[in-house]
Amino acid sequence: MPDFKDRITRHSEHVKNAGPHCSTEETTKQALILPLLDVLGFSPYDPTKVKAEYGANLPTIKANERVDYALFVDDNPVMYIEAKSCPDRLTNHTGQLARYFNATPDVFVAAITNGREWRFFSDQKHSNIMDTTPFLTVDFENIADSDIEKLERFRYGRFNPDGMRTFAEEQTLQDSFTTTIEGCLRDPDADFVRFIACRSDACGRLTPKQIETYTPIVKKSLAEAISKVVVGGLNVPIARQIPSPPLDSPQCDSPNGDIIDPNNPKIVTTEAERRVLEIVQAILEGQADPDEIIGKDTETYFSVCYQGKNNRWLLRYYGNRGTPFAMFNIPMTQERTGQAKRAGLEVRSNNGISLTKPEHLMKLSNMFFDALEYCKDDENFRKKNGSNTADEASE
């Protein structure tokens, strides 16, 4: 890797120096593109690895249509490259490249380049159809160490079909996550401020006014945290301050924060269950008075109830299982199931939602709003055909 990094760095300097003199496509190929292929282990002098002006008798491909370069591993094409002159912009030039890519199911990477910039494409949205957006872009005039690590995946000895597909998927997710995180850092919204405040134990319940007050503080804290990470690195452990419990908070009966019901020792309210209640109260702030959202524990599950009524429960949390899960009082429709899955949460066959930690409930705010509306509607709890609802009958 050190030798590869050094060669890529030297190539980057070469691009800066030679690029302004590459005004034609052919000069760009000879001076900028082929040298990089050689660094990657695809020697342009080895026809078993690199074929120029590659043509194939494939459906949708015109007889005189050629792709500039095809890279081969073990006699199989693995990547197509479309070349442009150094001054050219790379937008709106992928038509021919896409036709070759789409006509060759075994090829799952394609690139277009002007020598200065390389854009790599795959088929993540639709199988065998080249995406319109690259999963990786590398600017050799502004090369970064992270770019060099990614280019290492394209070396001849490491060019693996399954590994490359996974790499493309991970890179797309990383870019999406990075954009989202950058947006939160530059302009944190209410959900992000609430998340930070809850995770830091700054407050059990947050009002809209508190969120407004906390927002500039969170922005300053983010800047300070980023500075510490830059100086110390990600591997430095965080010295987490554990706040003292309020004087009027219930005292724990065990070292791990459990509270045992004096009337029934089988009912043990855990720290996680108390955290569930805090999160639900925070989510529903402004929708209901916090005093109306009450936690009730049983031997089997922990309930969050509206107005303290057992039959008007919003959520039941089962924390004493291998993987804790929660169930809502409303049907898990296809839309709600999709919402949970998009949030990265597993929906079980019994319609329970797996939760590795209570904070994951913050991803399901819309479901809490729907559950609260259901509990507020008295019609849902009136006697029907001379009998109570199932929950009323069980009280």
Structure commentary:
The structure is a single chain. With 395 residues, the chain is α+β, with helices and mostly antiparallel strands. It is built from eleven helices and 13 strands. The protein has a six-stranded mixed sheet with strand order 1-2-3-4-5-6. The chain has helices at residues 2-18, 25-39, 95-102, 145-151, 161-186, 190-199, 208-232, 271-283, 334-342, 365-376, 390-394, and strands spanning 50-54, 67-73, 76-83, 109-113, 117-121, 136-139, 259-261, 264-269, 293-297, 302-306, 313-318, 325-328, 353-354. Helix 1 packs antiparallel against helix 2 (25-39) and helix 6 crosses helix 7. It starts with a helix and ends with a helix.
Short description:
Residues 1-16 have a biased composition (Basic and acidic residues). The chain is α+β, with helices and mostly antiparallel strands and 395 residues long.
Task: Please name the defining characteristics of this protein.
395 residues; alpha+beta; tt1808, chain A; Aspartate Aminotransferase, domain 1; 3 domains; 6-stranded mixed beta sheet; 5-stranded antiparallel beta sheet; 13 strands; 16% strand; disordered C terminus; Restriction endonuclease type I HsdR N-terminal domain-containing protein
